[in-house]
Specification:
149 residues, alpha+beta, Luciferase, domain 3, GMP Synthetase, Chain A, domain 3, 2 domains, three-stranded mixed beta sheet, two-stranded antiparallel ribbon
Length: 149
């Protein structure tokens, strides 16, 4: 199905192990033995020693009846190492607030996964392929909240 990246042998070589393509997707199994995608390894951040996957938070936010979509990025925190910052797009003519979103998420996620801050946007920035451009979201943050890669 996939032989490698076009004109990028280094990326191809680093993506295969023992003949298997490594997608970077991380899975978890539930009590019934079903697999669920937890997120991408490159997107994971650590908050207070715990692994946090933005996709899990984004999926929980997508379950809010007034949220169209959301994206979460890590921001530095002096106590926890990193915490999440959620960018949320509400339904038209709806007003969301951080306290309400936080309460909604606390019913669905462990406390360390609930973003510290929220920014409400009209739309998430996307590239020509339709993927959310997280680096543009980071640019919306105050300088002190930007993660140093």
């Amino acid at each position: 199905v996939f032989d490698g990246y076009f004109d990028d042998p280094a990326a191809t070589e680093s993506s295969f192990r023992d003949g298997w393509f490594r997608t970077g997707d991380l899975l978890r199994t539930d009590g019934d033995g079903y697999y669920h995608v937890a997120g991408r390894a490159k997107d994971m951040f650590i908050s207070g020693g715990e692994n946090v996957f933005p996709a899990e938070i984004e999926n929980a936010l997508a379950g809010h009846p007034e949220v169209v979509e959301a994206a979460v990025v890590p921001v530095p925190d002096p106590h926890w190492g990193e915490v999440g910052h959620a960018f949320v797009v509400p339904l038209p003519d709806r007003r969301l607030d951080a306290d309400g979103l936080r309460a909604f998420l606390r019913e669905r996620l462990a406390g360390y996964k609930v973003p510290r801050n929220f920014t409400i946007l009209d739309a998430l920035p996307r590239n020509s392929g339709g993927k959310v451009v997280r680096s543009e979201l980071v640019e919306l943050l105050p300088l002190g909240d930007r993660r140093v890669a």
